[in-house]
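User: Here's a chain of 245 residues. Predict its fold as tokens.
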Amino acid sequence: MNSPDFTLDKIKFATDGPTFEKAVALYENGKVIQVKEGIRSYTAVVKGTKPYRVSVEARRYDYGHCTCYLGQNDTLCKHMVALSIFAVMDGKPLTVEDKKQVYNPTCSGRLRTLPDKEISGTKKAITTALRYIKPYIGPSRTWFAYQNSLSEGCNRLSAIVSNLSVSAQTAGLLIDLLLRLDKKLSTGGVDDSDGEVGGFIEEVVGVLQEFVKLDPSCTNAFDKLKNRETCFGWEKPLLITFTPV
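Assistant: Prediction complete.
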């Protein structure tokens, strides 16, 4: 089977948690059967409460059809996602990491300075994730797709943040990330009416506060915030703890 344009990460970060978990269960329990590859598409029967005929396009996992109630109403369903997982994995087993979804950034609790190669890789991953947090320039009918893009970007960033070890060096990475997001919100044309990005920023501030508890030298990274006003004052709780070490 030829690989689709989408990846497992795309499915994982762009699908809501309950739908992804149910799709994984269908895939792992062998409910995706009679899989066939067409012209830039895949079809299958997915056994749910009854057998459903499902199709997805190779270019986008959320473009397709299912004979279930949701699918008939043009809504992405667990059966389409299960087939998409099969298209990516080609029937191979999923690892624990494959199935892990992160929707909120957390502090890893690990104290370690990253080598240059890891820092470089993390910066590239952050830049890639930030591409999903983009200006809103489309017509009103694309609003929900736009919000989904913001959610996917924040989910991708949450996974990166949650995997970071704690040090003044990584605290600096997070401050740079927050400043980039702040610029996107204030002058970059990002429409965060639903508060997705703002909520993520506040959660990362909480992660940085946890960093300081584990390693007080992390406050050195907050020097960049002095004499700076952010879009909704997220820097204030960090500057309160700013004591250069």
